[in-house]
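[SOLVED] Need 3D model of a three-part complex

Original post:
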Amino acid sequence: MTSLGSKNSRYISSLFIVRNKGHDKLFSGLVIGAAAYTLLMVGLVAFSVMKGSIDIFSAEGIQFFYQSDWNAVEGRESFGAFPYIIGTLLSSALAMAIGVPISLAIAIFISEIAPPRIGTPLSFVTELLAAVPSIIYGLWALFVFRFWVRDLIEKPLYDAFGSLPFFAKTPFGLDIFTAGIVLAIMIIPIISSICREVMRVVPDSQREAAYSLGATRWETVRVAVFPYVKSGIVGASMLGLGRAVGETILVTMIIGNVIGPSAIPTTLFSQGQTLSSLIANEFNEASSDLHLSALIALGAILLVLTMAINVGARLLVKKKIKPSSGAKSQ
Amino acid sequence: MAIEEPIEADEAMLEGAKESTSETKVQESTEKYKVRIEKVNGWYGAKRAIKDVNLNVKDKAVTAFIGPSGCGKTTLLRCLNRMHELTPGAHADGRVVVDGIDIYDKSIDPVVIRRRIGMVFQKPNPFPTMSIFDNVAAGLRLNGMKNKTILREIVEESLKNAALWEEVKNELEKPGMSLSGGQQQRLCIARALAMQPEVLLMDEPTSSLDPIGSSKIEELVRLLKDSVTIIIVTHNMQQAARVSDFTAFMYLGDLIEYGATNQIFMKPEKELTERYISGKFG
Amino acid sequence: MTDDPRSSKKYSKIVHETVNKKYKKRIIVNKLVTIFTIVCVIAAIVPLASILLEVIKNGVSAISFEFLTQPQGSIGSGSGGIAPAIQGTIIVVGLASLIGAPIGVLAGIYLSEFAREGIFPDLVRFFNDVLTGLPSIVIGIVGYVAIVLSIGSFSVIAGAISLSIIMIPIVVRVTEETLKIVPYSFREAGHSLGISKAKITLSIVLPSAKNGILTGIVIAVSRIAGETAPLIMTILGTSLFFTGITGPVDALPLRIWRLASQPYESAHAFGWGSALILILMILALSVGLRFLAQRNTFKVSA
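Solution:
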């Protein structure tokens, strides 16, 4: 750059400043706008759900939550969310009961037992499970898996325990039990990958301390690893729960699709219906505005439920991935 | 990370092995050596970290391993309670005979060994979610001891032996991490002692402590040696001179010289030893 | 210190006795736990293998040139194909990505580079987290109420905006985390040369984070390509080809759902075929974009 007279250089510098300021202003405006868009989307979600469900709540009020009938006939309309709340809770509880222990076991295997050359491809494979779209899970569950469940698990259980109220229904595969199992398979990648993450953070010096006292491998995991990661595991499970609660398409395909009071499952092999599956099933054929409003209200309940679960979960997990005070890592 | 699980056998076989090895029977009676290290090699994958080490450790004495960084002293120490093989890809061969039993024998379960050969680490590692009492009792509980009275007695005795009892006797329920660095290290020593080990391995136990904490540990070592054979790794030569009866000097994976501490420090036989002692390197 | 150091011998015996007694049981427990973890690993792999197998096995037989290029014939006849669904997926997902990727990246840039302490960034992060956990059926409801009702018809744009709502939070999070990994020294160097923050971000920071961000975008797009629920009440799904951005359209996940619920074998076969196409498309997307990313990196460093 040639040397310039002071007047010229000041002029050129001022050009730079103006231009830069312009660029900066434009760009920071863009990014702030994009960030604000996030809040806009949230507002849109809240607003839409509220607007859509206001009708049914003003018509039925709090009854909506514990009523069971689902009558769309003109003039005698009455809607109650109770069976579907139960359906959602039950199918998710089942998914957790099956999915959490399996996820934990997988995390322990990959993190503490398997050598890296097995562990790394294995964690990749479990991630693949997460990448499968739920419509394909649904297809597979409907045409393949439900027969496995019916023949390998449900029939034997029914033969053995059919007299007990819990199992007193002839199983044919499309029921809350199968839904719970497939939901469990779907949430395993989420839970186990986070469990693995929090286990990874535990310092090796802790494991060494346990080994040096003559602990077996399982005892080392129990004594040196678990106390560190307890809240992380709970958080991971809650994230899985959130996913199970919100799952729609898979559930519509295999839960049996009943409505009204008969949708309250009484046995393990009952058909059922969840908040999300009913919305998917009836939305396009809703016969009246009130009917539609009732469906959207189900969505509102679902929204609040999943928000609570996810916020709680993230608080727990964030605490664990950051190293806590006092525990020194090597 | 995955730490490899070693092969197993049972405790009874251990006792059986003791009786059946006839050649060691004769030596047992005149055995002054607690630990006989014979042609031990330690590997990290294909890299050999310690080569053909032969060394006899005297019972109820303090033996120090010294040498510059990377000489293999810690690797050798960790071979003595089969902690070395916990690192993925690491293994050791050779014989380490403790009280007449080769701990590397195929039929021996390392879990059993580590009960009788305790270890204290460079950085104190008490279990953070446990109280002082629970920390000391941890090894005992893990190994199946449930009797509360006996646990209490052993915990008290171990804390006394670790020179920590007076400072914590009224606060046993407080978390282990609430102690100072030096206290935490003594807590770890108490935890190791609670298992009634016959040999105590110490891996640079004072390197993360301040001078006062360090001297307390050194004092402890001197007192403990009457009941436990102690092997201590240290990068601090003066500490080795102060505290040990025997010293082994290692360099780049080889055992260069081993003898009575006085002799090593006053009249070393090998030139390399002399140069290290006089501070010419390391 | 202890009075008599040999008093430890009294405990030595009892410790050894207890330990010997419990030893066998502990070893068995350890073995059982190991076996249990292996069983669980197998329990996770078997479904995955089965899904892939079934999709390939059942889907391959349904695929033909007609399948890929023709709209569906009369229901139950087994003729025709799913071409409108393929087209629809490309259009809706493509549009959603055009909306979602830039906004997501820009918002991620904000959070990483421009945000200062304060309630606004905290809110943005918090609600971003909230959005990632929302069930997609609820997003569909939002699309319906906010767009379908306003425009008056089930439409591509409703579907695209709904999918973008799902996509944006994912991209925001990945972008922010990837940018945070870029060493501060890069930015420092730019500042010391008197370059504007915008230019630093665009020309220095972003390119070095390009791979991570692109991967995040690919993950998000793969995710929305497989989504069914939001499409049910936004694009409706027809058996016709694309008619306009404000008109309804079909998409693969939706078509699969409809086909699966029909009682005809031929419909089911079409469903498997569509599933195979969907998976292949998602795969092609991931592989393709990764490949592009690799090539571009070479260019830049050369």
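Edit: The beta strands of chain B are 33-44, 47-58, 62-66, 90-98, 101-102, 117-120, 199-203, 229-233, 246-251, 254-260.
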